[in-house]
Amino acid sequence: MEQIHMNNKNDDFNEKLKMMAGSSDFLIFEKRSNFSHPFTICYFKPLVDPTILHEKIMPLLNVNADQSLDVLFAMLPITEKKLTSEWKSVEEGLLKGYAAIRFRAEGNQTLIVDVGKKEGRNVQAPEIEFSVIGPKEAFVESITANLNLLRKRLPVPEMKTKEMTVGNLSKSKIAVCYMEGITNEAYVNTVIQRIEGIDFDFVLDSSMLSEMIEDSKKSIFPQLLDTERPDRVAAALGLGQFAVFMDGSPHALIGPVNFALFLVAYEDYYLPWHMASFFRLLRFFAVSFSIIASSLYVAATSYHYEVVSTSLLSTLISSRADIPFPPIIEALVMELTIDLLREAGARLPSKIAQTIGTVGGIVIGTAAIEAALTSNVLLVIVALSALASFTTPNFRMSTTIRILRYPFLLGAEWLGLLGIFIVFAFLLVHLLRLKSIGAPYLVPVYPLRLSDLNDSLIRLPYSSFPRRPSFLRTRHSSRKSVEIDEE
Question: Record's Pfam families (predicted)?
Answer without folding.
Answer: GerA
